[in-house]
Amino acid sequence: MAKSQQTFSKREKEKKRQKKREEKQKKKEARRAEAKEGDAGIPFAYVDKFGNLTETPPEPTGEEEIDASEIVLGIPQKEESEEELDPVRKGKVAFFDHSKGFGFITDSETQEKYFVHISGLIDEINENDRVTFELEKGQKGMNAVRVSLQD
Fold it and tell me: In what residue span(s) does the CSD domain sit (predicted)?
């Protein structure tokens, strides 16, 4: 005669699984019965004009009419500014290291410092020289390029 393939531990595990299934089914039925008794449905939350959650719906009297054609999707077109009209800026060399080939220029209008590399020079510059330059987007921010001594 052949022996049964099921061992004692397999039978115990199967009994535990069956017991869990039954408990889960009972909980599910209890939740359904509770939902029918409560009959409250899904509670709603409304948002007022200040962004706060409320239980009462907002009144339509204070609403504004918005024309859908005025809504701009995406990035708005760039408007011309004074920087684009006159790209040449004036400034003073705050620091320049000839051995390393870079330095910084302070803009005379905004007092911002811009990085300058020796490859962006037209004339040779030294510290405290008055220069004219243009700005160009670099890897870490705006860089001064086409730097020349001011007349």
Answer: 88-149
- The beta strand positions in 20-141, using DSSP E, are 46-47, 53-54, 89-97, 102-107, 113-117, 130-137
> Count H helices, E strands: the chain?
2, 7
The ranges of the chain annotated as CATH 2.40.50.140 are 82-149
- How far is Cα 64 from Cα 40, in angstroms, rounded to an integer? 33
The β-bridge partners of 130 are: 92
Instruction: Please state which CATH class domain 82-149 belongs to.
Output: mainly beta
Q: How confident is the model over 96-105, as pLDDT tens digits? A: 999 999 999 9
pTM here is: 0.45
**Residue pair 86/76 in contact by the 8 Å Cβ criterion:** no
